[in-house]
Amino acid sequence: DTEVTQTPKHLVMGMTNKKSLKCEQHMGHRAMYWYKQKAKKPPELMFVYSYEKLSINESVPSRFSPECPNSSLLNLHLHALQPEDSALYLCASNIIGTGLSSYNSPLHFGNGTRLTVT
Amino acid sequence: AQSVTQLGSHVSVSEGALVLLRCNYSSSVPPYLFWYVQYPNQGLQLLLKYTSAATLVKGINGFEAEFKKSETSFHLTKPSAHMSDAAEYFCAVFLSGAQKLVFGQGTRLTINP
Q1: Is the pLDDT of residue B41 over 90?
Q2: pLDDT at A97
Q3: How many CA atoms are closer than 13 Å to the CA of B51, on its beta-carbon side?
Q4: A50 inside 8 A of chain B by CB
Q5: In terms of CA atoms, which chain A residue is nearest residue B39?
Q6: Could you give the count of Cα atoms lying within 13 Å of B2 in the half-sphere of its Cβ?
Q7: Over the stretch A31-63, which tens digit does the pLDDT of each residue have?
Q8: Which of A4, A56, A108 lies at the smallest CB-CB distance from B100?
C-alpha cells in the first residue's frame, strides 16, 4: 500500500468540464509534487510546493491550477483541458531536509490518477 | 546540467538470469541518484538511493547498484530474475540547488519463463 493517496483513480472529463485531482499524505512531509506521465514516457515535473507555498511551476498551462490547502493535502484543479492532456497524474511528497539530506530524501509517490480528456 | 541516461529502452532476460539495467549520469558535482520501479497501473516505488556513504548500494527485492565515478555510472543489477520483476525501471537524479527529481527515459524489463 502506498502512503500517498490519490483520488480518483480514474477520471474521464470533457473539454468544457471542471474537475479536481486530490492527493493526501500523513507522513509529515513538507514538500509535495505533481508529475505528469504520458504512456511509455518518464514522469515530468509540473509543480512543487514547499511548506504549502508554490516553489516551482514548470511553465505549466494555466488550465492546470494547483492548490495546497494544508501540509497534508495537494489538489490539482483542471479546467478546459485538451485531449493531449490525457495522462497519468502522479502526486509525490518528501522531507525537506538541510544539507545533504535536502538532496537525497526520496520521493514517495501515489498510484496516480489516470485522466482521459474527451 | 545534471541528467541521467538509461541505455536500452527494453531489456529481456530469462527467469533466473542476471538482470543488468544501465544508467549513466552527467554531473560535475556529486550526484544524488535513485532507482525507481513502476509496475503496470501503479505509481513509482523507490528501489534504492546513492548516499555517498558506500559505492555499492543494496535496495529492496534483491536489487543493488554500484556507483562508479570513473565511469559516471550507476547500473542496477539483480543476480537472479524473477517473473515479478517485470516492470518499468527509472534512474533519476535529484538536481542540487532545486527540488527537482529528473528521470531517465526508463527501461522496460521483461522476464521470459
Answers
A1: no
A2: 63
A3: 11
A4: yes
A5: A111
A6: 19
A7: 999 999 999 999 999 999 999 999 999 999 999
A8: A56
Beta-carbon neighbour count of residue B104 at 10 Å? Answer: 23
Residues of A in contact with B50 (CB under 8 A): 104
Cell 538532496 belongs to A103
Interface test with B, best of A41, A58, A107, A113 (most B CBs within 10 A): A107
Model pLDDT, residue B95: 78
A45:B100 CB<8 A = yes
Q: List CB contacts of B25: < 8 A, sequence separation 6 or more.
A: B2, B3, B4, B5, B31, B33, B72, B73, B74, B91, B93
3-state helix, strand, coil in chain B (%, to 5): 10, 55, 35
Residue ranges, chain A, pLDDT below 70: 1-2, 97-104
